[in-house]
């Protein structure tokens, strides 16, 4: 059943009644989101694979996930720019929900703030459980004139952004943090690493200090913006290297991956 939607809608789903519009519920424990532009999305299967795997571990069976996915796909608008989020809500019995939101203005650059504490997340490989801590860090970043916070490990090395993956260029090598259970398996990051493999670009998995990154072309990547090239670092206002040609070229590749949503 398709429910009429407003500018923003919070819709709770069940297999018997379909979607029901409800008041905003802040009891989310697992989430996933992606950009929809005129009925096209990037990595749609991958986002559902990540979300389905996470909620499956919380006891949601495959048949229910498949029904929910079909209902969400039917509900998504086919015109305009949207940034929907699917959620598993806290409590028993479990509830699945769709938060349908207009996409904010897309950006291709960003300033970053280096967090002043060690990465506080308790479940970094799952999207949702640590949103409160991540949101607090991004709010601090904005107080410092930045768009995103860069998280640090206990050795002072950059891990990833509060709500983004981190990649950078060192010579001709594309670098990113190792998949060691301490980062979110970002979908956009995965698409870029797969593209690097097809092009024969060397990928190095490592962590370095923010001071080392400040001399490189650095990207923060997300499903919403794709690639945002870092243009400056806080504290200190350190500028990034000029003319980030790689960012523009690789974003163009991401744009080619937008595909029509499945039929309703």
Rounded to an integer, what's the Rg over CA atoms? 19 Å
- How would a textbook summarize the main sheet? 9 strands, mixed
Strand residue percentage: 25-35%
Give the C-level CATH assignment of the largest domain: Alpha Beta
Query: Would you give the CATH topology of the largest domain?
Result: D-amino Acid Aminotransferase, Chain A, domain 2
- Give the structural class: alpha+beta
The level of helicity is: 25-40%
Instruction: Return the CATH architecture of the largest domain.
Output: Alpha-Beta Barrel
Average pLDDT over all residues: 93
Q: Could you say which overall geometry the principal axes of the C-alpha atoms support? A: globular
Order of helices and strands: EEEEEHHEEEEHEEEEHEHEEEHE
Tell me the span between the first and last alpha carbons: 11 Å
CATH superfamily heading of the largest domain? D-amino Acid Aminotransferase, subunit A, domain 2
Strand tally, please? Answer: 18
Number of helices: 6
Task: Please specify the SSE layout and strand pairing.
Layout: E1 9-14, E2 18-21, E3 28-33, E4 36-37, E5 40-41, H1 44-56, H2 62-75, E6 81-82, E7 85-89, E8 95-100, E9 109-118, H3 131-143, E10 148-152, E11 158-161, E12 165-170, E13 173-176, H4 187-199, E14 203-205, H5 210-213, E15 218-222, E16 226-234, E17 238-239, H6 245-256, E18 259-260
Parallel strand pairs: 9-10, 9-16, 13-14
Antiparallel strand pairs: 1-2, 1-8, 3-7, 4-5, 4-6, 5-18, 7-8, 10-11, 12-13, 12-15, 15-16, 16-17
Family: Belongs to the class-IV pyridoxal-phosphate-dependent aminotransferase family.
Keywords: Aminotransferase, Transferase
GO molecular function, one term: transaminase activity
